[in-house]
Amino acid sequence: MAKICTFAAYSYHMKIIHHLIISCLPLFSFGQLTLGGNNPQDLVLQTLSGSGVTISDIIYVGSSEAISYFSANTQNMPFHSGFLMTTGYRNLAVGPNNDPRAGIDNGYPGSTIMNSYIGGESHNAAILSFDLIPSGDSLKIKYIFGSDEYPEYVGAQYCDAFAIFVQGPGINGTINIATVPNQSIVSINTVNGGNPGGTGSGINASPPVNLSYFINNGDGSQSPYNSSAGYVQYDGLTKPLIAKTKVTPNQSYHVMMIIIDAVDGIYDSGVFIEEGGITASVSENNLSNFVNVFYSASNQQATIQITDYQENLTYSIVDLSGKIMTQSKISETTSIDLSNYSSGMYLIQVEGANGKMTKKVIR
Length: 363
Prior knowledge:
Elements: E1 28-30, E2 33-36, H1 40-48, E3 53-61, E4 67-72, E5 81-86, H2 112-118, E6 122-134, E7 138-147, E8 161-167, E9 175-176, E10 179-180, E11 184-187, E12 214-216, E13 236-238, E14 241-246, E15 253-262, E16 269-281, E17 291-296, E18 301-306, E19 313-319, E20 324-330, E21 334-337, E22 345-352, E23 355-362
Antiparallel strand pairs: 1-2, 2-4, 3-6, 4-5, 5-16, 6-15, 7-13, 7-14, 7-16, 8-9, 8-11, 8-15, 10-11, 12-13, 17-18, 18-21, 19-20, 19-22, 22-23
């Protein structure tokens, strides 16, 4: 197994497991990222469970202050709502990004299984596990990973990480399905914009890794990120990613999502899981299994994400009269600026050998 960090091991104290009872909190608004509710049973069943899945036996391990429901109307965040898991304190995800060192050590232990992936000791783990029965043959989970360790600690040992482990019929042992190209676990060091000056890490400068999946969000002192609540606090984010695996319909699978601090518990990282983002589709050959379309009304940016290579894909922007405003071939993740379009509703259509999918957007 490839290591994404190397460092000496540190001891950690006994795990504490919280079987949280129903205790949803009122929503608290901090600018354009709104948080509220930290009961994992309610959040998963009412928020994350999408089409084609039945979820049960939900258990959360970690600080109750590290998780929350979120709704968002922010820059760089195409998910409008969902479930937030962090390595410290949920409210520290809220913008503006005006703190280059946002984070808290919540005192919770790490994860043994994540230690083997990162090659050392983890801390402040937030672990959500549940059983799932899919009605389709392709399980998908949509998420965005972010961290305040960007960009200073890219290339260093402080590589906070996120994983989704799945086990069940047809799967050999336990596999991590939250990966980036080359099958690496999602972490500071596997998706980033580089670290040109080697600042903060005490190592040489690092080049970008999987740059096409990364979104810069400032460093805590840069405008406009540090002055607008329309940005989250994390210095960097991935674009929307999709974890997926083949499954057998109507069989039971165990899923475990884990986010951890690596080496120390200082700077926070978080993962945003889209509302309705856990799904199981009927046909692996359906175009929706390879292509996702996201739209952010806050900056009028659309993103077409290709999760597997498909030949002869095209996209079109179509108005309500049926007029094609823009049309182009696509072969990889594509960003579309709709800020110059007139206000109104548009259709973003993606077509290929496996059919056509359409996303309605309001400009």
